[in-house]
Specification:
Pfam families: PAS_9 (PF13426). It comes from Novosphingobium guangzhouense. Residues 20-92 form the PAS domain. This is Histidine kinase. By secondary structure, the protein is of the alpha+beta class. Helix content is 46%, strand content 21%. The chain has a single domain (2-199), classed as PAS domain (Beta-Lactamase, 2-Layer Sandwich), CATH 3.30.450. The chain is built from 7 helices and 6 strands. Strand 4 (110-122) and strand 5 form a beta hairpin. It is globular.
Length: 200
């Protein structure tokens, strides 16, 4: 019975992945930054991830499609960041959210992900997809984070006409991080605390 259910889910996942418009697939694949697209229903399963996302996380796209991005969080105690993300996902009127959150690559290596999420809506106003971008802030220098912010801002600007071709509207604008040096310092402290707790 379980195998049959998994086969059905796999079929649904394949259909979901195919339901992503080709224009969006091409846009994602050509993006220089890590991007993911999730569906708004049930457990917000991933419908699309790009090559940069695969490089960042170490997971193949086939291991992620159909699963919630929560797989990257493992058992880390990130209650504040999780609360922000949950509030965004639960409130359909919330246009976007941005927060650092502790994630883990497939090989178990921790990193602090500066996660940005916004909504892609149909012309009727329904949320069609949850758009997300990821950046490893724990390894960055302040100027790299500023460069990423510029690239993400340009990505959102370029995404709007591409999404419009598919009948989708990009909601929300980039929420900038005021003090990138402080964010990076906090990310490094988070990783240091994680290393320290694993030694004890």
């Amino acid at each position: 019975m379980r195998d049959k259910l998994q086969a059905t889910l796999a079929g649904d996942i394949e259909v979901q992945n195919l339901s992503v418009p080709d224009e969006l697939k091409t846009f994602f694949e050509n993006s220089p930054i890590a991007l993911a697209l999730a569906l708004p229903d049930r457990d917000h399963p991933l419908a699309l991830v790009n090559r940069r996302f695969v490089e960042l996380t170490g997971y193949a796209s086939s291991e992620l499609i159909g699963h919630n991005c929560r797989v990257l969080q493992r058992d880390a105690d990130e209650s504040e960041a999780r609360a922000k993300l949950r509030a965004f996902l639960d409130d359909d009127l919330s246009p976007n959210v941005r927060t650092p959150i502790l994630n883990f690559r497939k090989d178990g290596t921790p990193f602090v992900n500066l996660l940005y999420m916004s909504r892609l809506r149909s012309l009727a106003g329904e949320t069609r997809y949850i758009f997300a971008s990821q950046f490893d802030v724990s390894r960055a220098q302040p100027e790299r984070l500023q460069g990423y912010d510029q690239e993400l801002s340009q990505t959102l600007t370029r995404l709007s006409p591409v999404a419009a071709e598919s009948g989708v509207i990009v909601e929300g604008t980039l929420t900038t991080i005021a003090n990138s040096a402080a964010i990076i310092a906090q990310a490094k402290l988070t990783l240091a605390n994680l290393d320290e707790s694993s030694i004890l």
